Amino acid sequence: MSEKRVLSGMRPTGPLHLGHLHGVLKNWLKLQEDYRCFYFVADWHALTTEYENPKKIPSFSRELLLEWLTVGLDPEKSVLFIQSAIKEHAELNLLFAMITPVSWLERNPTYKDMIRELKQKDLATYGFLGYPVLQAADILIYKAHKVPVGVDQLPHLELTREIARRFNYLYRTEVFPLPEPLLSEVPKVPGIDGRKMSKSFGNAIFLTDDEETVRRKILSMVTDTERPRKSDPGDPENRCVAFNLIRLYFSPEEQAEVIEACKAAQLGCRDCKQKLAEKVVESLRPLWQKREELESRPGLFEEIVAAGNEKARRFARQTLAEAKEALFGAGWY
Ligand code: TRP
Ligand code: SF4
């Protein structure tokens, strides 16, 4: 186990699907074996865009953390917590706000993109402009060395480094390490219509779908459209959406068999997708079981969250005290 710390967060905006599982969570699971990991639900960040409708955030937060546990994030190995339970993030955010030039925030490409994309929402708020400052506080309060994120988050991470550098420079301190992004290769997970899997496209297979739903969705997946009959030879690697999911669930040998049989017009799409559905269902079954287990023991989930919050809080308090000492030098933190 490395002494290095990893931190990442997700905004609670809805149920997780196979895209999150293969794109993000599998990586988090791997990291928890080698690093001291902090994973948190970024509910204050959700508030920056959902402030008109905040009542749904707590149930999404609870659901998100529950789903993390079902995929195997282990509260004994990783610190799992809820951002808004750790007030220290807000205090560090305030200190960082004092030293962050507004121009750094205004030129942030993610900021400009989001304002453009979410036109129906009024995002011209102080809180939304300050989104990356709060994110810097999230990361730096745990003195994280590595931050697994998607490429869309790289500008935020660069800002985090700039804020850390500025703080360290202004107050002649080394309280904050400069965190680095951890970019893992992310497999393409197709939705059932062939576009990228996404809740807003209505093409997602959710981790909480039941068995029947998973099977139905997979059987409705687009296959090689130039192959209306089984007797037509197919081209799975280039023309079949279902095959992109097969890549994630079949062993290399099994994939080779599918390719051969499909090209030889010996495998029907319905049979093929049935096998795929079987594999996906079997891979999700442990998650469903874990969820039942957690839900059958009243109070267990709450205990896990409270313990995670407490671990996070202890670390955050310590860093905040060091930061304030570096800043004010009052000697009373
Ligand atoms: N901005 C991130 C996202 O939208 C969520 C997030 C908030 C985050 N704070 C973070 C991610 C700190 C990594 C580290 O996905
Ligand atoms: Fe795709 Fe399988 Fe049909 Fe071939 S047999 S086109 S791989 S679903």
Give the helices and strands, then pairings.
Blueprint: E1 5-10, H1 18-34, E2 36-41, H2 43-50, H3 57-71, E3 78-82, H4 88-99, H5 102-106, H6 109-117, H7 126-129, H8 131-140, E4 146-148, H9 154-170, E5 180-182, H10 211-219, H11 236-239, H12 241-249, H13 252-263, H14 269-296, H15 300-328
Parallel strand pairs: 1-2, 2-3, 4-5
The structure holds tryptophan and iron/sulfur cluster.
Count of DSSP H/I helices: 15
Radius of gyration from the CA trace? 23 Å
Q: Strand arrangement, largest sheet?
A: 1-2-3
Strand tally is 5
Structural commentary:
The structure is a single chain. The protein is about 55% helix and about 5% strand. The chain has two domains: about 5-190 and about 300-330, 3-Layer(aba) Sandwich (Rossmann fold), CATH 3.40.50; about 210-295, Tyrosyl-Transfer RNA Synthetase, CATH 1.10.240.10. The longest helix is centred in the C-terminal third of the chain and has 29 residues, at about 300-330. It starts with a strand and ends in a 5-residue tail after the last helix. It has a three-stranded parallel beta sheet. A two-stranded parallel sheet has the order 4-5. The chain is elongated. The relative contact order is 0.14. The chain has about 325 residues and is mainly α. It has helices spanning about 20-35, 45-50, 55-70, 90-100, 100-105, 110-115, 125-130, 130-140, 155-170, 210-220, 235-240, 240-250, 250-265, 270-295, 300-330; strands at about 5-10, 35-40, 80, 145-150, 180. It is built from 15 helices and five strands. The protein binds tryptophan and iron/sulfur cluster. Tryptophan (TRP) binds near residues 8 and 147.
